[in-house]
Amino acid sequence: MSEDNMKDLSNENCGDGCECGHDHDHADHQHDTITLTMENNEQVECAVLGIFEVEDQEYVALLPEDSEDVFIYIYKEDEDGEIELVNIESQDDFDKVSAAFLEIMENEEEEEEEE
Question: Which residue in 22, 30, 49, 61 has the most C-beta neighbors within 10 A?
Fold first, then answer.
């Protein structure tokens, strides 16, 4: 992910087939993970693809294991390091943030192809 647009939170191996667009042959390819508790109390383990900013608001992109769908939430961190993920309520905001995330991913893929 471009350093200008997305913070890479590499820490835990995401494994093959994660659809994140990275070359898994590199031993240093890793992601932090977070466990989400869904409305039905189901626990979903997600790879943290990164944190990015759109119009002075930070967002986080998560990839649930066994899924190709990316979850995007408003990302907040307080002074104690506690993280809060907030749903994006407006469809217009979600569309704008999703488009920004896709652009970041496309730019990263282009950069990797050039290397």
Answer: 49
1: in domain: no
Name the residue among 14, 84, 85, 89 with its Cα closest to residue 49: 14
> How much is the pTM?
0.70
Give 31's DSSP letter: B
Query: What's the structural domain count of the chain?
Result: 1
Domain of 67 in residue numbering reads as: 6-114
Q: Which two tokens stand for residue 75?
A: 């990302």
Among the listed residues 71, 36, 29, 74, the one whose alpha carbon sits nearest the alpha carbon of residue 52: 74
Hey, which residues does 62 pair with through a beta bridge? 48, 71
pLDDT tens digits for 50-72? 999 999 999 999 999 989 999 99
Please, which pLDDT band fits residue 114 given cuts at 50, 70 and 90?
A: confident
Place of tokens 């659809």: 19
Token representation of residue 68 = 């190709």
Sign of the dihedral defined by the CA atoms of residues 13, 108, 17, 86, in that order: positive
